[in-house]
Design a protein that fits this description.
This protein has about 240 residues and is α/β, with parallel strands linked by helices. The protein has 9 helices and 8 strands.
Length: about 240
């Protein structure tokens, strides 16, 4: 597990300067299928790195790209969220740079998936039609032009919390749109869970955590266990060469 510099690849795409990422490699000798992982709104913290490590443990060369590499979290957050809403911008260049790294690595089989959490889940959904082999969308915001976004999308596994006030009805809408688009998919809503339920610890600024806790946002272990099992099964079916 190591931090890597993606700045040169990002420069080729007019992406962030600098751009960094966290690379988690499976045990043993590759090559392996790979996953670009996109962090939640609070950044590439230890919980997000733990998700990358977990994917590596499942046999995937995983690169968690740090979309906040080029400045303060607050400044980068505004630019990153703006890019997600518009469907274009520097964040997409950074995600593409991470994919370029994996696709060019001798440790990669050539099969590359994308996975995201929260904000990153929104980016994973927006990226699903960009030539990836599979996508895992975890409580990601649905784009305004959902049907257009899903045209030509790769297989998608998605998980949402039934108690997430920001994404009410998102699972049903996504499931229906994927069915209409003819995209292979597995979408599930977990009634006991809210936002960020796959995390195994609280995240975000410490001053905000009591408020997030009151809102029910954070870990929900039973739902997370099932969601990870579905992701493992789905990736095994669609990312293995």
């Amino acid at each position: 597990m190591t931090d890597i510099d993606l700045s040169d690849l990002a420069a080729d795409r007019d992406g962030s300067q600098p751009l960094h990422g966290y690379l988690a490699s499976p045990a043993g000798t590759g090559p392996w299928p790979a996953v670009v992982m996109i962090h939640e709104i609070f950044g590439l913290d230890e919980v997000m790195r733990g998700h990358a490590d977990r994917l590596a443990g499942l046999g995937y060369l995983t690169l968690a790209v740090d979309l906040y590499s080029a400045g303060s979290t607050a400044r980068c957050l505004v630019a990153t969220m703006t890019a997600m809403i518009r469907g274009r911008g520097r964040a997409f260049a950074d995600i593409g740079a991470a994919r370029d790294y994996l696709a060019g690595s001798p440790d990669c089989t050539g099969q590359v998936g994308v996975m995201g959490f929260c904000m990153g889940g929104g980016f994973a959904l927006l990226s699903a039609s960009d030539g990836y082999d599979a996508a895992a969308v975890n409580y990601g915001q649905l784009p305004r032009r959902l049907d257009e976004t899903l045209a030509g999308a790769c297989p998608i596994v998605a998980s949402y919390g039934g108690r997430d006030p920001s994404l009410r009805g998102a699972a049903d809408r996504l499931d229906a749109a994927l069915h209409s688009a003819g995209v292979i998919h597995d979408v599930k809503e977990y009634p006991p869970a809210s936002h960020s339920f796959l995390n195994d610890a609280e995240t975000g600024p410490r001053l905000l955590r009591p408020l997030l806790r009151v809102a029910g946002i954070g870990p929900e272990p039973d739902s997370a266990t099932d969601a990870w099992m579905r992701i493992e099964t789905f990736f095994a079916a669609h990312l293995q060469a």
